[in-house]
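Continuing the batch. This is chain 6 of the set; chains 1 through 5 are on the previous pages. Same settings as before, nothing changed between runs. Recording input and output for traceability.
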Amino acid sequence: MRHVKTPRLLADLGGGHADGTFQQRLRTYLTVELILSSTTLVCRP
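Output for chain 6:
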């Protein structure tokens, strides 16, 4: 199980594009049986 905030996940994968390790980083997320992704939603009136 892995818990990660969605912006962190996307930033990590984006960093993989920048340094050429995208496939390796993506593989680390795909080999986990369960990923809990959370976001913080801010609603303004």
